[in-house]
Amino acid sequence: MIKVLICDDQELVCEGLNAILSTSTLVEVQGMCYNGLEAIDFLEKHAVDVILMDLKMPVLNGIQATKQIKEKFPNVHILVLTTYDADQWVLDAIRYGADGYMLKDAPRERLLQAIEEVNEGRTPVDSKVAGKIFEQISKMPQKSPTTIGSNLTDREKEVLMLISHGKSNAEIAENLYLSEGTVRNYVSSILEKLEVTDRTQAAVIAIRSGLVD
Question: CATH 1.10.10.10: does it fit domain 154-209?
């Protein structure tokens, strides 16, 4: 069972999500919090696999909470779930470590699928939000592929391509006939060479610079 924490400042939303998730045999709701600070306090006392995180909340918003949670509890996966798809909120949430980003109008089955995906190490992003991300990417100065990633080995480029396709470390290991430990080492090296802090940023740079298709 995937242990889920719901974090949203609207009680009605929390209750609705709880009702939806309670119908799944793969998910177990551990609790509900109404701001980011409550979520951090909850994690101090309870084991959680995935947090459904709203962004606009009082006391401590979802972006600030995501940053702090990723620093204190790096193994907890955060799926941002919000009605807010404004550019800066999206980019900030991803920059601070959000593992996925879905809008609240996502169908039930897609939401459950996204929870499973983040728990497996994937990065689900709502198609509407993805459009915002790539719109922002298109405005960035384009750099030459000969300078970006030129220090990556052929194997690292293979791993980066699979990261860009949303594959988890386990799936990459299976695809390339490597151990997960070796894949983790490759991922760390890729992030360092691209000067980024997470897989999503690496994938965005790779796609933007033409390193992967």
Answer: yes
